Amino acid sequence: MIALDTWTIITKSLPPMLEAMLKYTIPLTLISFAIGLLIAVLAALVRISESQQPFMKLLKGIVWFYVWIFRGTPLLVQLFIVFFGLPMLKVSGHPIFELNAWTAGIITFSLNTGAYASETVRGAISSIPRPQWEAAYALGMTRGMVLRRIILPQAARVSLPPLSNSFISLVKDTSLASGITIIEMFQVSQQFAALYYNPLLSYSLVAFLYLMLSSILNILQIYLEKWTSRYVQASQEF
């Protein structure tokens, strides 16, 4: 235990926390959200598919089950299952899955984000008026062309606010990665809290960093919403 004054603790703790934010928190968020968004779009497209083929019905059931599981269980529990639980599955005494903490974190955060974001994307696609589909079909477009050229661009604008909120939430949720030994900035704050025996200061400092990061993302969200809605606003004024 080391007793130091407040300013000394801040100057000693802040650089390692910022380093952990740049090396782990931000990359973990960006990679997981990118993969999760891809999963979300694919899952949403499966859910809205009108195909009655047996394979598609099976695929819809699998996607529904995946979304149900990941939306219905705590993220921390999911992290523990992937990191601590899956390596216990063995064949002939050898683990089937051998995942390091970084890989387990990305897999879990991506799947969790994909499950929540898939409902956002599905809702955004469903909000596009049906006559737009019918008009595009009347022009000879295929379903893929309609989605790519007409529906998805509009759905992206509609889903931007909730997806931005999901991204900001993911930034904060990465603090749970400390539970599977990833040295992101919350775990660094825990280390300094134990070292200097000043948990209030250490945890307040990391909370401030999360707050600043979230505030920057909120500003970017507002800008993106205005930028993606510029044509809609112009048409309304006209």
- SSE run: HHHEEHHHHHH
As laid out across the biggest beta sheet, the strand order is 1-2
Give the helix level as a range of percent: over 70%
Number of helices: 9
CATH topology: MetI-like fold
CATH superfamily: MetI-like
- Overall structural class, as computed from helix and strand content, comes to mainly alpha
The backbone outline, from C-alpha atoms, is flat
- Which radius of gyration do the C-alpha atoms yield? 22 Å
Beta-strand content bin: under 5%
Regions with little confidence, pLDDT below 50 for 5+ residues: none
The biggest beta sheet reads: 2 strands, antiparallel
Mean pLDDT across all residues, rounded? 90
How many domains? Answer: 1
Distance between the termini: 68 Å
Strand segment tally: 2
Under the CATH scheme, which class? Mainly Alpha
| CATH architecture level-2 label | Orthogonal Bundle
Main location: membrane
GO molecular function, one term: L-cystine transmembrane transporter activity
Domain ABC transmembrane type-1: 22-218
Family: Belongs to the binding-protein-dependent transport system permease family.
